[in-house]
Structures are given as structure tokens and as C-alpha cells.
Amino acid sequence: MVVELPVPGALVDVVAGAEVVTGRVAQRHADGVVVELPVAPAATEPLRLYWTAPEGVHTVLARVAMRWPVRTGVRWQLLPVGAAERGNRRDAVRAPLRLKVQLTERDSRLVLRGRTTDLSEAGLRGRLELGAGAPVEGAAVDIGLLLRGAVFPLPGQLQTVIGDETGWDVTVAFVDLAESLQDLIRAQVFAALREQRRLSLL
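^ PilZ domain-containing protein, sequence as received from the core. Prediction below:
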């Protein structure tokens, strides 16, 4: 199946070298797209676009054909290198974040608390404190995640559990998140990435 490039107005994640910048498609042409970014990444190679379509996440390698400043940032004319394909943004938008988190297993009602170690739109990794029982791989969980001073409920599933005498390292995948929650997590992740970049430049 041929995957089309993102349409004008679509949000895109531009992964340039080790940086990730979220922008919006300003124009789409037969041979590429013009993307508006709030800031220009320091590197332009390698460069990959990620975006969400009704059938899932798509990605394509690209190169910069032109770039110019605008009032709200910069615009890049990007030409695809090869065909767009189905992709996974999990690694592209992952940021190290220590946030308070609570997991409640739906079947056992076991409650575990801890902190995340990193966060993405697809899920989280974290460290949980010892509790009344042990988390179970594959269990459906309700996640309470502290974002911007408020606790948000997120549905998820425990993917991996590695325990020791002080707690558990877990990986949790989000399941069927509402679009508003995806946007909130995206904003948190990219704010952390921007701060990471700022600190690296000091």
C-alpha cells in the first residue's frame, strides 16, 4: 500500500540527528512538503519525519531542499528519500522524565506507586516501590500520572517487570489514549526535550 505524505495542517515530528522538533505541514507538493518549525534543529542529517494518519503512525526519510525564516520560526522544504512507510514513534519522542505515577491492576486491584524514568506517547518506563504484591506482566492497569500539577487517568498494559529487593523496573504501554491525552503527553515530552537541549548548550 502506498503511504501518502502528511496533509497541510498535520502535526509532524522532525527527527534531525539527536533532536526532535514538532512542527506543522504548511504545504504539500507532488514531490514533498513544506514544514513550519518553531526552531531549527542544529543538524539536518539524518532527518526523518513522523506523523499520525487514521491508519497509524507513518514515517519517511527526507532531505532539506530549502529553508527560510518566518515570523513564527522557520520553514523547511523537505523532499522524501524513498517511500513513506508505517512507523513507530516510540523512540523518536521519548524523553527522560521523573514523574509521580500510580498503577492499579484492574483484576487484582493491586496499587503500586513510584516514578517514571522516561515517557513517550506510546508508554512509560518507571521504578515502582515495594507494595502489597508484585506486578504481573501482561496485566491491564489504570495509570495515574502527575502531569502539570494534576493527576490524569490513563489506560495501559504492563509489558515488562524486573524486580529486586527494593522494587520493580517496569515498562507500560498506553492503550487507546484519547487524543487530548496524547496531546498533553506530547507537550510534556517535547518540553523535556527542549530543556535537555537548552542545558546541553550551556
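The CA atoms of residues 55 and 86 lie 9 Å apart.
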